[in-house]
Amino acid sequence: MKIIIKFIILILLVIISPSALANTYFRAELTGVPVITNTSITANVGLTYLQVGFARLFVSSLDQYITNNDNPLVKIPVNNLYLICDGQSFQISNTGSQMFYVDMIDFTRTAQKNVSLRLENIGELPAGTYSVPLKFINRTGITLDYECEFLLTFVVDEKQAVSSFSGDPYIILSEEDVFNKQISVKNKNDVRLDLTSNTNWKLWLDTSNIKELEGEYSLLVKNVSGNISNYEQNIVRLLPNQHYLLAQGTSTIRGTELGNSIPTNLTLEYSFKNSETDKYIKEGIRQYPLTYVIERE
Length: 297
Description:
Blueprint: H1 2-15, H2 18-25, E1 26-30, E2 35-36, E3 40-61, E4 65-68, E5 75-77, E6 81-85, E7 88-91, E8 98-120, E9 128-140, E10 145-156, E11 160-164, E12 171-173, H3 175-178, E13 184-186, E14 191-197, E15 201-206, E16 216-225, E17 228-231, E18 236-238, E19 243-249, E20 264-273, E21 284-286, E22 291-296
Antiparallel strand pairs: 1-3, 2-3, 3-8, 3-9, 4-5, 4-9, 6-7, 6-8, 9-10, 11-14, 12-21, 13-20, 14-20, 15-19, 15-22, 16-18, 16-20, 17-19
């Protein structure tokens, strides 16, 4: 009787179309939201498959690269992608199928298996939506293959940051400077701003925290390096409650194919001049709260 039942199942499976078999007997679904860090991306996937005698599960990629859909020039080799099953890691490629699980039983059933897809050794990535099509195969005990395609997709959010290791600018007015009403005094420390952005960006100077200025203050962008496409090349007179565009550029993070990041920075020089020629000014430090804002272009 057991042999007759298996034979009937075999006949039924053979007469069903391959596409129907794929949709009915093998499914791959994302469970939860992919977890993204600076070095890896992990997505959990639930597999539902038909088991007839036994099931051997395979995975392969349908593309050589994981591609940024917003910027197709940004690609990650698919061999950076691994399938994690029961604590074991299996590298995925587009040149052949990798078997990662064998499930044996002496009757027909619908089984489930949870696995993880893990993208490793990537560093930081440019912002955008990434995807790669994968194929899962279930090779059963009656030598039938059930296939399903799964599109692995994850989103890298925009991220910008600006930092300075040289502190705030300060101008020291000495006793000699006080009696020279026309002197222009430069800051004692040039300010270097280090920028990181995984998308196109703009850098602004915000003086909204300054209510009143004693004398004339000016700014000059002395040096730039890295992914800066345009910057202010004139001496800029600073006033309270203003926004000044200092520079703009492209992503400083390029992805694994091109190298991870491009050091990008600006060096700023501040200067002070007495605006009233009939008055002397007090000696001492001139220092005001300035805010640097980096944002997506």
